[in-house]
């Protein structure tokens, strides 16, 4: 039925009133009406929308309660990457940051902005014609998760911008967090109900925002602070970031009450010291201060290095430190056989989190700090996240303590433990025979970037190994649906899905297969390079260390690991079983044996380094092209480098090339060179 114009106007007026009162309450912290009046207005609007469903709009205040639960989050590709920040830990590093900017811009003084670095979850909000249309997590900076449904439940985030002078399309970036008071109150409620509590506010924010059911997110006390913008279309923003922040606030978006404009590095340092004094009384967790060049035009000149802007810096605050006792030192065996000593500590609160253990890294670290069972030690949370034993309090050491020495036999499988002369880490030689390594090796083999076996997660792998159904990755392909169906929480349909996923994984690529094997120091990039260079598995298995070192980015150490991995009889046996199970890939012509064409442009034997983003081809394609022409491609710049090809947002490699006087060319010149 049609909605009378008077009713339409009434609903519009109610929405505007509720938006205004929400802004006053959540952003300005200055409510102008009592909660009961706000509730009355909300009920009135809900009544109209119930009677006339046509009135419901996505940005209506009534739509914050959350909808149906999702089965999974959709991927969200950031049109403009969400970069990380370079860190500083001292005044000297801050001064170096300021000096580099002044030298680059040829200015005596720089105006900066300073604001707290809130410890939460980075988020991107997208407004079209003033309405919130999408929201996504940072993810890896390029690809995040679509959490629009959950973001809509956070009351401090406007579903519609105020005013009318905003751009047609506006991306706003900020940090979602849980205020400390609400965090403690929520945990107290959870304890009273006998349910799980969150370890810290950051985990609480991340866990709450990543709920598949928006109604759960709606029940969590989340907040947000905006700290910048991304894509802007159909309008312009001011030239200074401080003026942009004023715009965001005017449009109803939450900004930091601690935001300031400061002059020079000295102003940044004064802000840091003042905020550090206030840290314990602030309403949210912070782990530092963020400085940014205020002028957006100067930012464009400064550009970016690697995955971070040159015009911004995160100045980390020192972690809180406490004393506690080392009750025991256990040894954990990792996926690659590395032995890691772990200190079991008398429980102690550090930065709002109860810490009961801390890694001791390796034997050298234990010896350097002289850590023993029974010692009183100073513990801190490095970066406010990772517990670390800083030092031993020797005057509190009990009598008759013994120096700790790593075992010479694996505590899990009894195999020999070996530590190479040039390495700090001791390793179990049990390889895939070691139960401790077995679970993690199979988990890695099945992971998304490896064989991508959907549904074969950590808990299922643990059940399979514990039930003695699998002892190596090859055993996965012998599993039956009947065997899987006997496991906990695994019905016939789920079992069939796993079998189907295993079957689908048999069609793969050589690069994925190599990465799945878990060869030490052979990550995704190395696996791809090996695949392109040799074309198939057998030549890699038969390659000598010297031949492996001819592969771009494969140095002496990596070549040793690859060579020795393929010389282990058990590893060879597992690989044979995997191939017999039906794993296969498309064989490509090996670059290692492809005779380079006759060249007249002198590229044969020349060494290239690629940095930044190329627009006409990927860096992998550029590398393969150069290799076919007889050139060499390196991952690092040295005096022996002939050319550095600098694409967009070239990073530290470009800086080093300029310092060494190496020839730097852009993508256009590179393409001409290839011709």
From TrEMBL:
<feature type="binding site">
    <location>
        <begin position="84"/>
        <end position="85"/>
    </location>
    <ligand>
        <name>NAD(+)</name>
    </ligand>
</feature>
<dbReference type="InterPro" id="IPR036420">
    <property type="entry name" value="BRCT_dom_sf"/>
</dbReference>
<keyword id="KW-0520">NAD</keyword>
<comment type="similarity">
    <text>Belongs to the NAD-dependent DNA ligase family. LigA subfamily.</text>
</comment>
<dbReference type="InterPro" id="IPR041663">
    <property type="entry name" value="DisA/LigA_HHH"/>
</dbReference>
<keyword id="KW-0234">DNA repair</keyword>
<dbReference type="InterPro" id="IPR001357">
    <property type="entry name" value="BRCT_dom"/>
</dbReference>
<dbReference type="Pfam" id="PF03120">
    <property type="entry name" value="OB_DNA_ligase"/>
</dbReference>
<feature type="binding site">
    <location>
        <begin position="35"/>
        <end position="39"/>
    </location>
    <ligand>
        <name>NAD(+)</name>
    </ligand>
</feature>
<dbReference type="InterPro" id="IPR004149">
    <property type="entry name" value="Znf_DNAligase_C4"/>
</dbReference>
<feature type="binding site">
    <location>
        <position position="410"/>
    </location>
    <ligand>
        <name>Zn(2+)</name>
    </ligand>
</feature>
<dbReference type="GO" id="GO:0005829">
    <property type="term" value="C:cytosol"/>
</dbReference>
<dbReference type="GO" id="GO:0003911">
    <property type="term" value="F:DNA ligase (NAD+) activity"/>
</dbReference>
<keyword id="KW-0479">Metal-binding</keyword>
<keyword id="KW-0464">Manganese</keyword>
<dbReference type="Pfam" id="PF00533">
    <property type="entry name" value="BRCT"/>
</dbReference>
<dbReference type="Pfam" id="PF01653">
    <property type="entry name" value="DNA_ligase_aden"/>
</dbReference>
<dbReference type="InterPro" id="IPR004150">
    <property type="entry name" value="NAD_DNA_ligase_OB"/>
</dbReference>
<dbReference type="GO" id="GO:0006281">
    <property type="term" value="P:DNA repair"/>
</dbReference>
<dbReference type="Pfam" id="PF14520">
    <property type="entry name" value="HHH_5"/>
</dbReference>
<protein>
    <recommendedName>
        <fullName>DNA ligase</fullName>
        <ecNumber>6.5.1.2</ecNumber>
    </recommendedName>
</protein>
<dbReference type="GO" id="GO:0046872">
    <property type="term" value="F:metal ion binding"/>
</dbReference>
<feature type="binding site">
    <location>
        <position position="115"/>
    </location>
    <ligand>
        <name>NAD(+)</name>
    </ligand>
</feature>
<feature type="binding site">
    <location>
        <position position="138"/>
    </location>
    <ligand>
        <name>NAD(+)</name>
    </ligand>
</feature>
<dbReference type="Pfam" id="PF03119">
    <property type="entry name" value="DNA_ligase_ZBD"/>
</dbReference>
<keyword id="KW-0862">Zinc</keyword>
<feature type="binding site">
    <location>
        <position position="292"/>
    </location>
    <ligand>
        <name>NAD(+)</name>
    </ligand>
</feature>
<feature type="binding site">
    <location>
        <position position="413"/>
    </location>
    <ligand>
        <name>Zn(2+)</name>
    </ligand>
</feature>
<dbReference type="Pfam" id="PF12826">
    <property type="entry name" value="HHH_2"/>
</dbReference>
<keyword id="KW-0227">DNA damage</keyword>
<dbReference type="GO" id="GO:0006260">
    <property type="term" value="P:DNA replication"/>
</dbReference>
<dbReference type="InterPro" id="IPR013840">
    <property type="entry name" value="DNAligase_N"/>
</dbReference>
<dbReference type="InterPro" id="IPR003583">
    <property type="entry name" value="Hlx-hairpin-Hlx_DNA-bd_motif"/>
</dbReference>
<dbReference type="InterPro" id="IPR018239">
    <property type="entry name" value="DNA_ligase_AS"/>
</dbReference>
<dbReference type="InterPro" id="IPR010994">
    <property type="entry name" value="RuvA_2-like"/>
</dbReference>
<feature type="domain" description="BRCT">
    <location>
        <begin position="598"/>
        <end position="675"/>
    </location>
</feature>
<feature type="binding site">
    <location>
        <position position="434"/>
    </location>
    <ligand>
        <name>Zn(2+)</name>
    </ligand>
</feature>
<dbReference type="InterPro" id="IPR012340">
    <property type="entry name" value="NA-bd_OB-fold"/>
</dbReference>
<dbReference type="GO" id="GO:0003677">
    <property type="term" value="F:DNA binding"/>
</dbReference>
<dbReference type="InterPro" id="IPR033136">
    <property type="entry name" value="DNA_ligase_CS"/>
</dbReference>
<feature type="binding site">
    <location>
        <position position="316"/>
    </location>
    <ligand>
        <name>NAD(+)</name>
    </ligand>
</feature>
<keyword id="KW-0235">DNA replication</keyword>
């Amino acid at each position: 039925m049609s909605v009378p114009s008077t009713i339409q106007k009434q609903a519009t007026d109610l929405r505007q009133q509720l938006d205004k009162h929400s802004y006053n309450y959540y952003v300005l912290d200055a409510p102008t009406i009592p909660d009961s009046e706000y509730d009355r207005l909300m009920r009135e609007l809900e009544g109209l929308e119930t009677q006339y469903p046509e009135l419901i709009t996505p940005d209506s205040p009534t739509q914050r309660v959350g909808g149906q639960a999702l089965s999974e989050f959709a991927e969200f590709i950031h049109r403009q990457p969400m970069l990380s920040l370079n860190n500083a830990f001292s005044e000297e590093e801050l001064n170096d940051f300021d000096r580099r900017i002044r030298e680059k811009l040829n200015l005596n003084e720089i105006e900066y902005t300073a604001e707290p670095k809130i410890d939460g979850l980075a988020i991107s909000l997208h407004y079209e014609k003033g309405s919130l249309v999408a929201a996504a997590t940072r993810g890896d900076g390029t690809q995040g998760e679509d959490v629009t449904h959950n973001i809509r439940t956070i009351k401090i985030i406007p579903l519609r911008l105020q005013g009318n002078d905003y751009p047609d399309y506006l991306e706003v970036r900020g940090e979602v967090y849980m205020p400390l008071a609400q965090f403690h109150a929520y945990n107290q409620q959870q304890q009273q109900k006998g349910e799980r509590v969150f370890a810290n506010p950051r985990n609480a924010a991340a866990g709450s925002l990543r709920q598949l059911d928006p109604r759960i997110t709606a029940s969590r006390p989340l907040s947000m602070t905006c700290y910048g913008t991304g894509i802007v279309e159909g309008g312009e923003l001011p030239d200074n970031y401080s003026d942009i922040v004023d715009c965001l606030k005017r449009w109803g978006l939450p900004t930091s009450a601690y935001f300031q404009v400061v002059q020079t590095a000295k102003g940044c340092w004064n802000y840091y010291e003042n905020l550090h004094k206030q840290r314990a009384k602030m309403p949210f967790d912070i782990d530092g201060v963020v400085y940014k060049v205020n002028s957006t035009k100067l930012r464009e000149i400064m550009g970016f290095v690697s995955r971070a802007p040159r015009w911004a810096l995160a100045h980390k605050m020192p972690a809180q430190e406490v004393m506690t006792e080392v009750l025991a030192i256990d040894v954990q065996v990792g996926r690659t056989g590395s032995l890691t000593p772990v200190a079991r500590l008398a429980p102690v609160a550090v930065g709002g989190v109860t810490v009961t253990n801390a890694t001791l890294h390796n034997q050298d670290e234990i010896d350097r700090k002289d850590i023993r069972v029974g010692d009183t030690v100073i513990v801190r949370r490095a970066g406010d996240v990772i517990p670390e034993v800083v030092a031993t309090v020797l005057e509190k050491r009990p009598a008759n303590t013994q120096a700790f020495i790593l075992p010479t036999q694996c505590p899990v499988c009894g195999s020999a433990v070996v530590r190479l002369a040039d390495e700090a880490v001791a390793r179990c030689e049990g390889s895939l025979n070691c139960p401790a390594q077995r679970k993690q090796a199979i988990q890695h083999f099945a992971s998304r970037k490896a064989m991508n076996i959907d549904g074969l997660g950590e808990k299922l792998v643990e059940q399979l190994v514990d039930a003695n159904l699998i002892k190596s990755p090859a055993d996965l392909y012998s599993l039956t649906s009947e065997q899987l169906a006997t496991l906990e929480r695994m019905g016939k349909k789920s079992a069939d899905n796993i079998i189907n996923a295993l079957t689908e994984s048999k069609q793969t690529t050589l690069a994925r297969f190599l990465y799945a094997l878990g060869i030490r120091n052979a990550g995704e990039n190395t696996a791809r390079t090996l695949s392109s260079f040799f074309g198939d598995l057998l030549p890699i298995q038969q390659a000598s260390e010297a031949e492996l070192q001819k592969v771009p980015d494969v140095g002496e150490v990596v070549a040793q690991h690859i060579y020795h991995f393929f010389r282990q009889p058990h590893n060879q046996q597992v690989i044979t079983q995997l191939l017999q199970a039906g794993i296969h890939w498309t064989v490509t012509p090996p670059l290692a044996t492809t005779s380079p064409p006759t060249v007249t442009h002198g590229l044969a034997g020349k060494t290239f380094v690629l940095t930044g983003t190329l627009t006409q081809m990927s860096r992998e394609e550029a590398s393969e092209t150069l290799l076919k022409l007889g050139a060499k491609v390196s991952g690092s710049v040295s005096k022996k480098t002939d050319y550095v090809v600098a694409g967009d947002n070239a990073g530290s490699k470009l800086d080093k090339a300029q310092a060494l006087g190496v020839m730097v060319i852009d993508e256009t010149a590179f393409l001409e060179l290839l011709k």
